[in-house]
Amino acid sequence: MKPVVKIGGSLLKSAEDFVRAARFVVSQREPPVVVVSAMKGVTDALLELEKSRSISIYYEIARRHASVAEALGVLEATRAPLKELKDALKMPREAWTRDYFASFGERLSAIILHAVLRRLGTPAKLFTAPLLTDDNYGNAEPLALESADEIAEPGTVAVVTGYIGRSKEGRFTTVGRGGSDYVATFIGREIGSRRVSLITEALGVMTADPREVEGAEPLPLLSIYEALEAAKLGVKHFHPRTFVPLLDAASTVVEVRSYESRGTLIGHFYPPPPCKVVIRCEGGSYIIGLAAYELTKLGGVLLSRYAVRLNMAPRDAHELFIRPHLKTLFKR
Ligand code: ASP
Ligand code: MG
User: Which CATH superfamily is domain 4-199 in?
Assistant: First the structure.
């Protein structure tokens, strides 16, 4: 089944970035479903715009997209949504207007990437918010995927908006910040993909924050259970439910990687090391791992089956419980 590739917003800052993303998509063995995030910083700007209704913020957002689209020769495709956004400034505030404003980020970047793929001669179809969700605006829950058959159709790249969906009433919804990954894993499950690739700036899921912990490394493998904990505890700013769709998709693997790295493979397996990720928390560290419960012997407090809290600085916890195992790990 068609693979899913999600392109993160940190990788969409310029016209060249869209070309890079398009080339990456084209280089895949099989034309994938591409789930696209808003350009870097745009969701924040749109939410600010909804609050302030500031015309100068509007022009800043419009200018960013128009200049990227113009450099790519696809300006025409952005005109209608940018006009729609301008008109939205007059809308009264309702429960759904924040999500409506936020939707433009993913809509615009999907439109641009789709147009670029077409210009490169790649058969591609655009799907705007095919996700049906409940109407819990700002934190909507995906319920179903519309046009699943069309999205899954082999031979064509399906460009799909991340982060957003539609409620029964037909209004745009958002699944929560960082939610494009969640949309990607949900779609992967719905169409039965074998692989969902979450492409980011990072090399993969790291054993700790490398800015704070020396010797932190990308993990080659992570079990689904560890990944669920990692997302819940805020690793890499994942949406807390990012890996939930994997629970009932036993033959799907998710890879978290950059364009070049091999990244971290997440799936239904039980790989070493026994403890995998350390996260700073108030008064110490969270430690995630299939054998994290062992640390209760050292005073660790069990948070859930695969995570404990310890009164120990992340650096020390990493040095003691994770680093010694990394040397013996198969390096991917
Ligand atoms: N654009 C959305 C956000 O900034 C969703 C995402 O990028 O995953 O939260
Ligand atoms: Mg993200």
Answer: Acetylglutamate kinase-like (3.40.1160.10)
